[in-house]
Amino acid sequence: MKALTSLSKRGQITLPAEVRQALGLKPGDPLVVRVEAGRVVLEPAVVLPVELYTEERILEFAENAQATPEELDAFRRAWGF
Length: 81
What we know:
By secondary structure, the protein is an alpha+beta fold. Helices cover 35% and strands 15% of the residues. It contains three helices and two strands; from the N terminus they run αββαα. The protein has helices at 17-23, 55-65, 69-78, and strands spanning 31-36, 39-44. The protein has a two-stranded antiparallel sheet. A hairpin with a 2-residue loop joins strand 1 (31-36) and strand 2.
């Protein structure tokens, strides 16, 4: 598939609707931009959620894993608690 678009004064492009639909892209979807052999390549990015562990969540892990008190202390030190 080929489609024509142009670069705005602010360096922005609009992906044509048929391209967005073909890739299933929605507003706000992250894209990876790279230069490859003199071409600009855009591809959907895979973004994994990151969870920040609270004290309660660490205790939940400890209960489920049946960590020893020493292991729990080591986890807290490793996670900066």
